[in-house]
Predict the 3D structure of the following.
Amino acid sequence: MATTADFKNGLCMKYNNDLYTILEFQHVKPGKGPAFVRTKLKSLSTGKIIDNTFNSGVKIEPVRIETRKYQYLFQDDSGYHFMNKENYEQTFLQEEMINAPQFLKEGNDVEIMFHAEEERPLACDLPPFVELEITYTEPGIKGDTATNATKPAKVETGAEVRVPLFINEGDRIKIDTRTASYSERVK
């Protein structure tokens, strides 16, 4: 058992019959009344983010999680298939468990979080940035770099991203998978 003094970002715990990970926390000691901890928790089963307040000293049940590197293979009716890079064991996940499935490309490396005691996959995180090629976009015009205007573009995985006007078909771009937005053009 642990207490609120053991809170840290990324800590996984059992709370309300579900697994939550701590995104943010703040210890608050008001001038009047007992201390408490404000937290922002993310459910590992649904992906929902909730705000919660714990009284200081409350006992929580931490859960041990392991993160393993996997390689994305393919997608079919049963889900997304991944292969462990160390022992070549395969596993598959549903789309809800992946943070940005629209940017998955065959051969991409991902990290899958497992419940250590139950050997059950909980979530899959892509790297913060992926490089993809533009397959379709309206042509750019020389000199279109002065404004922050954007246009839609389709990348090789089929996802649509807003890009600056100077990006053309065939360009490789870096995409932020956390916000699903354009980051920069890759040379």
Notes: The two ends are 51 Å apart (CA to CA). The longest strand covers residues 65-76.
